[in-house]
Amino acid sequence: MAQQPAHAARDARAEASRDESFRDSISTVDKRGKRIWVYPKKPSGKWTTRRQWFAYSLLALLFAGPFLRIGGEPLLMINVIERRFVFFGQTFWPQDFLIFVVGFLAFIVFVALFTVAFGRLFCGWACPQTVFMEQVFRRIEYWIEGDWKHQQLLNKAPMSAEKLGKKTLKHLSFFSISFIIGNTFLAYLIGSDELMRIITEPPAEHVSGLIAMLAFSGAFYGNFAFFREQACTTVCPYGRLQGVLLDRKSVVIAYDHKRGEQRSGWRKGEDRGAVGKGDCIDCKACVHVCPTGIDIRNGTQLECVNCTACIDACDHIMDSVGLPKGLVRYASEDEITAKKPFAFNLRMKAYTAVLLVLVGALGTLIATRSETRTTFLRTPGMLFQERPDGRVSNLYALKVANKTPRELPLRFEVLNVDGGEVMIVGKPIVLQPGELASGEVFLILPKDAVTAMKNRVIVGVFSGDELLEKVTTSFVGPMKPPGT
Ligand code: SF4
Ligand code: SF4
Question: What is the pTM of this model?
């Protein structure tokens, strides 16, 4: 009988022994539902360093964001209270609803496309939760309490002056940083000028601002000091989407099970291939560094935030035992099992086409966006009025919104009919930033310009000499006898 090759027998054994029970529970909760605290070993290596510098650039941008100005406006502000939103110096109001909808759809498609192609790259590299947790709070913890084993010992040890000192220092540092994050978050909501007023003016004048400041700081402190990886593994909706979006072609952080199995301890000088052993020496270095407490060798899991720590840990081990690096690496399941390189597949092409259409629509909407949004609606039940001077008028309900961050004194002109006039009923209209005003106006046209029952009139909305918007409406006039 022909002998089965060592690697085929090894693959068959690996397949048979694959235990999927880890999928029935999350690694940070025990059988009684009690939290298992994760003590990840401090990671180091090429990917960790790259992520660290990338995270520092993001943090610099994040903290500078509310204070950077473009044309006097912040880089980014999401003021839900005043319903005013600033992106790259451009102010948007709820009146720009269509832009928000298209922008939101484009964002969702972009996230889906990105996830289909590159898995949770965003989680590991750019998500504020991972960036703050791994690059700020965890680093402070390592600095004060030491690496994972020291932290475990410290937590098990009875209370002492040293333990009290370390815990106090850690939590004071955590709260101080949470306070800075909370203030920055508030600045994104209300603007940096308003934040400075809360900080510099008497507390009694800004009670709600101070409450918000403390609430945000407390929430960030609770999250980063205690809740930690649970935000990614149990709360984040993006994490839950992975099961739907990822396929065998998605590039994720993966363990090369073809190469790694059968895993077995390291023996110096042994020819592992000859005795049917894979390259994984079962040292669990990849498990020890994992901040979500999982074993990447079990395959792609919802808890994996693609933080790269296990790549560095395994590369280091491979290096030290003289095996090629990359047993854990960025790869798709197809690449591992069938050696297929990354391909731009049909699903990605479809998402890209939809994304391009949405981005095109968004660009057009922004480029053609007017600074006001005006509607003239003819008063229901009223026809036209013949005026003593021989002209004809229609009464309209006017609604006009100011989408700029500046005050706008408005005037209106009929653009397509000589001798046409717009008469505002009541006071002149001066709109504050973001204000939506309503009123009544008469459109007045010379009688000989009214050539049909329904006439098309274009009204220009001006502030000073600047034409802000053109609005088309209909004007009802007297029916002309035939032949006149
Ligand atoms: S499995 Fe690896 S990449 Fe995923 S969270 Fe754990 S250490 Fe990070
Ligand atoms: S670090 Fe590498 S060799 Fe060690 S257990 Fe993990 S995959 Fe196997």
Answer: 0.79
